[in-house]
Design goal:
This protein is of the alpha/beta class and 277 residues long. It is built from 9 helices and 10 strands. The strands form 2 sheets. Strands 3-2-1-4-5-9-8-10 form an 8-stranded mixed beta sheet, with helices on both faces. The protein has a two-stranded antiparallel ribbon with strand order 6-7. The two termini are 40 Å apart.
Length: 277
């Protein structure tokens, strides 16, 4: 860029960057005012707005999902799909012959999933509520956390508590299948430090931690998107705290893991990749 245009461009671009940083800081501060129940409701609201297009619901499994489920789910398995949403992977797993039930925090998503089941002439039990609190209907051969939703459970203690809870409902030889967003570099501390500061000042019962990511929810200015991104070794530590062992673990641009009860495992098979599969 040459001539007189360069100076106003640099000034305005710098101003835009300053507003962007201020917006992120303000969002971190605002998140600190939330209590844990408020955060969980914000998560439910955000995911209630996702995946409503019929083409998306009919899309089926992504190739990496299909490969993972073919390997670790057995025909006839009773499966609880945690975070089933509007039914994309629920419908696909039912069509593959698994006995699948769905669970989601968003009532609107569950309502659409019911409609799609009826349209496809499929039958499945659907449950509404957070996995942390809902009463589990019996025992299962596998629990599948859909589409990175394990990381949408706020707080380490809550995630470990969920793993302990579902371990008690695993049939012999049962598996827990998790996908997650990994972080390959140390998380930025300042945003979380700001959230923690406001949380202490407002006496919030939510305890933000490094790896928590807060961002605006798409399409709703008042909305909030939360997820926890996992550092190297973090998922293994949570599994051990719950009395579980990773029997398979792949960590690349996404993480996938299969857990089982410690005394029944044969050791972890792990791989790390740098490209998409």
């Amino acid at each position: 860029m040459r001539g007189w245009r360069k100076v106003p461009f640099v000034l305005l671009r710098g101003t835009a960057r300053a507003f962007e940083l201020a917006s992120r800081a303000s969002l971190s501060l605002a998140a600190g005012t939330l209590r844990l129940q408020d955060l969980r409701q914000a998560i439910a609201n955000a995911w209630g707005e996702v995946g409503h297009q019929e083409a998306y619901i009919r899309w089926g499994l992504w190739p990496w999902e299909k490969s993972l489920y073919d390997r670790f789910l057995k025909p006839g398995d009773r499966v609880l799909l945690v975070g089933c949403g509007t039914g994309r992977d629920l419908l696909a797993l039912l069509k593959l012959g698994y006995r699948v039930e769905g669970l989601d925090v968003a009532p609107r998503a569950i309502a659409l999933a019911r409609q799609m089941l009826e349209t496809e002439d499929l039958v499945a039990e659907l449950h509404t509520g957070p996995i942390e609190a809902v009463a589990l209907p019996g025992s299962f051969d596998a629990f599948v956390f859909s589409w990175f939703c394990y990381g949408y459970i706020p707080q380490l203690e809550a995630r470990v508590g969920v793993l302990r809870k579902i371990k008690a409902h695993l049939n012999p030889g049962g598996r827990i299948v998790i996908s997650y967003n990994p972080t390959d570099r140390p998380p930025r501390a300042l945003p979380i430090r700001l959230t923690q500061l406001v949380g202490r000042l407002t006496r919030s019962d939510w305890r933000p931690a490094l790896g928590d990511v807060i961002s605006p929810a798409p399409g709703w200015w008042q909305g909030l998107h939360y997820e926890h991104q996992f550092g190297d070794g973090e998922l293994e530590r949570e599994a051990r705290a719950a009395g579980l062992t990773l029997v398979y673990h792949e960590r690349s641009d996404r993480g996938v893991a299969v857990l089982s009860e410690a005394e029944r495992s044969g050791g972890v098979r792990s791989s790390q990749r740098t490209s998409r599969s």
